[in-house]
Design goal:
N-acetyllactosamine synthase activity, elongated, glycosyltransferase, single chain, Spore Coat Polysaccharide Biosynthesis Protein SpsA, Chain A, 346 residues, alpha/beta, golgi apparatus, binds 2-acetamido-2-deoxy-beta-D-glucopyranose, eight-stranded mixed beta sheet, disulfide bond
Length: 346
């Protein structure tokens, strides 16, 4: 190739220009990249910030996968303090005849479907409140009115369940509470259960609605009895047992129809398991009993002494494991879950 036209010479020189341009581009690119790295080192001088920066990079690379990641990450909430800062001690209770369910609902906007949990900390226990019920709407209203704010001041995660006995057969508080335990566990694996009469309103929020290492009896005194324990060994009105404690005693007996005996039966079950009953101090375990006449359909159970005599022999077979019932409806209302059941008749 002895001859080369001027055109050819230009092309040959052009080749060097292209090479030079490419090398300059590579250099420029390296310079820009290292500049970025230096910048990110300046911003993220600590390990945490480096992690955050890494997240930021991932965001830039694939925002559609990174974004949901951020939404699902729960904001870390600490456990609520051992004693809530919201407690008020003894409060004056009111029982206004003009009170309406709507009023109680608007006072408790944070409660939905009977449930509440603190927003700024994680509750120390999750508690199901079980209230056996039939035609005591007025008492229930007063109780809800006081109990919701009371439980919220204690910073608990809780749901209130009303166990409504359908039909007109004699009332059976104990069996309704067994049903409540079984039904509430379908919603959530509650740590603690409070078995609560509808006509007892707690007066002091230092009476904690949580469970202990031993079964707990919360009603030491009520205004109707001069705030004295009704009798030694009394275990009625309001009691607290963990999920395991209640299972261990096989729950309540299902055989107490009418008023009385079922709470003593539960005490015998607890004692047979070598558990001991604990109580809060007298000055806080105080209740107001809302006045009422004995209900028809809840007459005194004359058979209760005979039944109590056979408890040690029958408790294994009569209780949670033999509780048969038919759930008629489960209504999730703003302030409580209404579980209506057919529990049969004596
Ligand atoms: C207890 O207090 C309630 C509510 O104030 C009242 O209706 C009831 O009569 C009181 N009982 C006694 C025995 O004082
Ligand atoms: C519970 O639901 C039943 C059936 O709908 C109803 O008759 C009863 O009044 C309800 N009880 C309460 C306390 O809401």
């Amino acid at each position: 190739m002895g001859f080369c036209s001027p055109v050819c010479k230009v092309l040959r020189r052009g080749k060097y220009f292209v090479l030079l341009f490419l090398s300059l581009s590579v250099l420029a690119w390296i310079a820009a990249f290292s500049g970025e790295t230096v910048k990110s080192f300046q911003v993220s001088s600590t390990t945490t910030e480096t992690l955050v920066k890494g997240d930021g990079l991932r965001d830039k690379l694939s925002p559609w996968t990174a974004a949901p990641d951020h939404l699902n990450t729960p904001t870390p909430k600490g456990e609520c303090p051992p004693e809530s800062p919201l407690l008020q001690g003894a409060v004056k209770l009111s029982f206004e005849p003009s009170l309406k369910l709507k009023d109680v609902e608007s006072e408790n906007k944070e409660v939905a479907k009977g449930k509440y949990e603190p927003t700024d900390c994680t509750a120390r226990q999750s508690v199901a409140i079980l209230i056996p019920h039939r035609s005591r709407e007025r008492h229930l209203l007063y109780l809800l009115h006081h109990l919701h704010p009371f439980l919220q001041r204690q910073q608990l995660h809780y749901t209130i369940y009303i166990i409504q006995q359908a039909g007109v057969a004699t009332f059976n508080r104990a069996k309704l509470l067994n049903v409540g335990y079984l039904e509430a566990l379908k919603d959530y694996n509650w740590d603690c259960f409070i078995f609560h009469d509808v006509d007892l309103v707690p007066e002091n929020d230092h009476n904690f609605y949580v469970c202990d290492k031993q079964p707990k009896h919360l009603v030491v005194g009520r205004n109707a009895t001069g705030y004295k324990l009704r009798y030694k060994g009394y275990f009625g009105g309001v009691t607290a047992m963990t999920r395991e404690q209640f299972l261990q005693v096989n729950g309540f007996s299902n055989t107490y129809w009418g008023w009385g005996g079922e709470d003593d039966d539960l005490r015998i079950r607890v004692e047979l398991q070598k558990m001991t009953i604990v109580r809060p101090p007298t000055d806080v375990a105080r209740y107001t009993m809302v006045f009422h006449k004995r209900d028809s359909g809840n007459e005194i159970n004359k058979d209760r002494m005979r039944l109590l005599g056979r408890t040690p022999k029958v408790w294994r077979k009569d209780g949670l494991n033999s509780c048969s019932y038919k759930t008629l409806s489960v209504e999730r209302l703003p302030l409580y879950v209404n579980v209506t059941v057919d529990i049969g008749k004596p």
